[in-house]
Amino acid sequence: MAFDPASGALKCPYCGSKEAVPQDDTARPVQENPLDDYLHAGPERLAQLSQSAVQVTCGSCGATTTFEPTEVAGFCAFCGGKIVAQPTAADPLIAPEAVLPFRLPKKQAVGQIKGWLGSRWFAPNALKDMARQESIQGVYLPFWTYDSRTVSGYTGQRGEHYYETEFYTEQDDQGNTVQRSRQVQRTRWWPAQGQVARDFDDITISASKSVEAVNLHELAPWDLENLAPYAPAYLSGFKAQRYQVELGDGFESARGIMAGVIEGDVRSDIGGDEQIIDHIQTRHYEVTFKHILLPIWIAAYRFNEKVYQVVVNARTGEVQGERPYSVWKIVGLVLLVLGILALIYFWQASGNRMPARGSQ
């Protein structure tokens, strides 16, 4: 049986019977894990996605995907290359804490991609034909989420505006020299120092390098409030990518996002009309994380020896992707516009040469 996005249950592809996704009564609810306990995780902290899971690595792009038999490797979801390596038992990893199950059925995802390609005016016709024949794959992408409490001390300067009257001379419309005045903005600067605190929740970092970051960013938002405790049954009929960004590296990216928010807090705390920040020292504590899996439909296709991807948020139907441009279509449009402009020019020119009615 495979997981059915439309019903949220396991469904037999032959007779259509359904069963609820089995849940482990001993499994813990979705919760945060202490970051320090896993940064240098030993074997006792690692686990397989399931006892029967296998994995395969694409020889072209290097992406490693995990799936449940009887699913087969076939073609790489990320580059469209044929998988020639034999599946092996899945390596242990920091197991997912939660999963956001597929909700958009494959048929609807195919329609979304066709609509997206159909709206690309300069996409080559061959690409559209190829996309209709290319099957898309459902893949769970790995993400890290981080929570952190922070306290930040800072030093800087607060700028307060004031205005002075400035006199100047200029010539008026009659050429006379006249004296005028204007208000000029000045700034007084005062030293500032203090401390701000902020708690961060679910800073989400992609752990995949196989999908363009800008496309993943545009797929958001994700309804993380509907995360379900991870169960291997959710993978039935789908694949899951192994994380390519390690836990510690992901936290460094999250720290950068937090730093931008903290800078805004510091500027607000300094106040005034302008602020100069000389130094911020932030301490992170009670840092926790989750490894979660988020669902996408993905179509990878090759055109003129280059790989392009179209991805669909399997919760909302949002489509993002890349496509080539048809040089001939662009040239044709330019020629058409030039032809229309030429016709307008000759029509106007011929109208100007016609003699006025009644002239000799």
Topology of this structure?
Elements: E1 2-4, E2 9-11, E3 18-19, E4 33-34, H1 35-38, E5 54-57, E6 64-67, E7 88-89, E8 98-99, H2 106-118, H3 125-133, E9 137-171, E10 177-206, H4 213-219, E11 228-229, E12 239-241, H5 247-270, E13 274-303, E14 306-313, E15 319-321, H6 327-353
Parallel strand pairs: 8-13, 9-12
Antiparallel strand pairs: 1-2, 2-3, 4-13, 5-6, 5-7, 6-12, 8-11, 9-10, 9-13, 13-14, 14-15
Describe this structure in words.
The termini are far apart. The longest helix has 27 residues, at 327-353. The chain is 23% helix and 37% strand. The protein has 360 residues and is α+β, with helices and mostly antiparallel strands. It has 6 helices and 15 strands. The protein is flat. It has helices at 35-38, 106-118, 125-133, 213-219, 247-270, 327-353, and strands at residues 2-4, 9-11, 18-19, 33-34, 54-57, 64-67, 88-89, 98-99, 137-171, 177-206, 228-229, 239-241, 274-303, 306-313, 319-321.
Descriptive keywords:
360 residues; alpha+beta; 12-stranded mixed β-sheet; 3-stranded antiparallel β-sheet; 6 helices; 23% helix
Portion of residues in beta strands equals 35-45%
Regions with pLDDT < 50 over 5+ consecutive residues?
326-330
Helix content range of the residues, please? 10-25%
Count the helices. How many? 6
> Could you tell me the mean pLDDT?
85
- How many beta-strand runs? 15
Q: Largest sheet, described in full?
A: 12 strands, mixed
**Distance between the first and last residues' Cα:** 92 Å
SSE order, as H and E?
EEEEHEEEEHHEEHEEHEEEH
Question: Which structural class do the helices and strands define?
Answer: alpha+beta
Question: What overall form do the CA principal axes indicate?
Answer: flat
Radius of gyration: 30 Å
